[in-house]
Amino acid sequence: MTGDEFAIVIKDQNNIDEVSKISQKLITFLSNPFKVVQNEIFITLSIGVVTNQIKSDSAKDYLRDAEIALNKAKKVGRGKFKIFDKKMYTNLLQQWNLESELQKAFKNNDFEIFYQPIYSVSRKKVYSFETLIRWNHPRFGYISPKKFLQSAEDIGIINPLDRWVMYRGSNNIKELSKSLGEDFNISINLSPVQFALSSLPIYVKEVIKKTNIKPSSLHLEITENTLLSDIKSALRIMHSLKDLGVQLTLDDFGTGFASLSYLRKLPIDTLKIDKSFIRDITTDTQDRAVVDMLIKLSKELNLNVIAEGIETKKEYKMITQMGCDFVQGYYISRPIRFSKLQKSITNIQTKNYDN
Fold first, then answer.
1. Tens digits of per-residue pLDDT, 297-346?
2. Which end of the chain is more exposed for a tag (fewer CB within 10 A), N or C?
3. How confident is the model at residue 260 (pLDDT cuts 50, 70, 90)?
4. Which residues contact residue 209 at a Cβ distance below 8 angstroms, ignoring those fewer than 6 apart?
5. The CATH homologous superfamily of the domain defined by 16-84
6. First-to-last C-alpha distance (Å) of the chain
7. At what angle are helices 231-243 and 200-211 packed, to 10 degrees?
């Protein structure tokens, strides 16, 4: 155990409900402030519980299991308790295995970038591509980033992985633009870890120089919640990026808690409406009203607006009637491997999505 941890042994008590009550009483008691030299000190308590219903070989195993439950409680939030079950241990082993395989994948370059087109409604052509990383696992095939990005962050490879995506994606789209004789833009998702780095503008400048991509063709997507964690630092970094000539997109808008006053201050070029609002737009009048309001708001603020998650003709027609500039989703195209991108663009730009 570490310096801020202690253990309590309760004899002759194996009732889960009673153990839960005792845990909650401890948390409540210690939530009251302590007076230290006329100062009030507040502390929070997180608890991991293991009962003798879980058979272990030694006290060391019981402490290990309690530690696993404690870490689970901390992830839920402060002032919580969790009771250990064997599934927690199984999940932890799977997590360790995933992290080990991720390290190997990073060394072996087992990642690939897929590109999802962003379609211009007015021009009837592909406007940009969003980069979507995939892990090409030797046994399980392509794995979605939702299943490994948090682990990549935990083991410290998220920043070099983000940098690789930015460089490779920019270079590929530059090649594609040259090959087809028309300019395409590239949208790169910035992870919270990458965005928080003071060196981010320096690296972006290096990417622009090495790939010779037009700065205005590089669109960096930042989620609403990433900005809200430290709005002052976020504004400073965003202005540094804008000085380079790149475009900034506020991603997943509507899912966080940003006020409209913050929106006016942000040096952004594009608002991307989260797909959670698009999903029920044809059946839910409230979602429809929210999307309509966001599109009108974007116009008032002279921002481009992208609707993501467009999967049906009905959604496409409704969103375009509202005046949305750009759309993205399976109705236009699924994410595409770079080797098949050129052929796919031709198919997309000759298709009539209105009929």
1. 899 989 999 999 999 999 999 999 999 999 999 999 999 999 999 999 98
2. C
3. low
4. none
5. Reverse transcriptase/Diguanylate cyclase domain (3.30.70.270)
6. 66
7. 20
Assess contact for 176 and 126: CB atoms under 8 A.
no
Which residue matches tokens 């404690």? 70
Cα gap 322→309, rounded to integer Å: 16
Q: Are 220 and 200 in contact (CB under 8 A)?
A: no
250 three-class SS: strand
Q: Around Cβ 43, how many Cβ atoms within 10 Å?
A: 12
- Of how many residues is the chain composed? 355
Whether this prediction's pTM lies above 0.85 is answered by no
Give percent of the chain with pLDDT exceeding 90: 41
Alpha carbons 151 and 165: distance in angstroms, whole number: 17
Domain ranges in the chain are: 16-84, 100-349
